Amino acid sequence: MSWAQLMGHLPPVTRCLVLAAVALAVGCSLDIVSPATLYLNWQLIIYELQLWRLVTCFLFFGPFGVPFFWNTYVLVHYCSSLEAGAFRGKSADFLWMLVCGGGMMLALTYVFGNAYFVSGALIDLMTYVWGRRNPTVRIQVFMLQTRAPYLTWVFALVSFLMGGSMQDHLIGIAVGHTYYFFEDVYPLLPTSKGFRLFGTPKLLKLVCNEQD
Question: Where is the signal peptide (predicted)?
Fold first, then answer.
């Protein structure tokens, strides 16, 4: 399958994420843009109004290399599966999940004073929700076999064994669980009266040409 065919088969939001990630990787590889201008830095955002960092910190997976291709694979395989499956015909809901999840991640990084890229945490959010909505699926990751709800934890373990930080994964898992609870669990409780904390705004559905 060619690159154009692959892009054509991806659902719209995932396609945009992949294209943005590839564009930033190409830009950094060709020295058109520097990673130093993309990462999350609250001082520069607040005092110098470099607001683009609020977006680029979610879209940069590093220059071309093993981490980039691994994250892109997970994005294409699991995240597109989530959008095409549980969110089939509901790309506005999927996009709103990312917006709400991204907002929670930004809040956490602000509170804890971290400045870095949170693209990995965004992927963990999507894989966590995918796993929760496909609880019976079994997956082989390298030499580990697990059920879908535990996939994100396996990714975190593999990253830790390879010398990576667990912090990004824990943020992604925490945000993913928060979304899952308030979207899939809490509305079913009698006391909720059907309330959905992460209900998609009607304006966004209108922009995406979708109906309730």
Answer: 1-16
Q: Give the fold, CATH level 3, of 3-207.
A: Rhomboid-like fold (1.20.1540)
What is the pTM assigned to this prediction? Answer: 0.90
Residue 101 banded pLDDT, cuts 50, 70, 90: very high
Structure tokens at 168: 């990004």
Residue spans of the domains in the chain: they are: 3-207
Residue 44 CA from chain centroid, whole number: 23
Q: Return d(Cα 22, Cα 19) in angstroms, integer.
A: 5
Q: What angle do CA 34, 172, 170 make, to 5 degrees?
A: 105
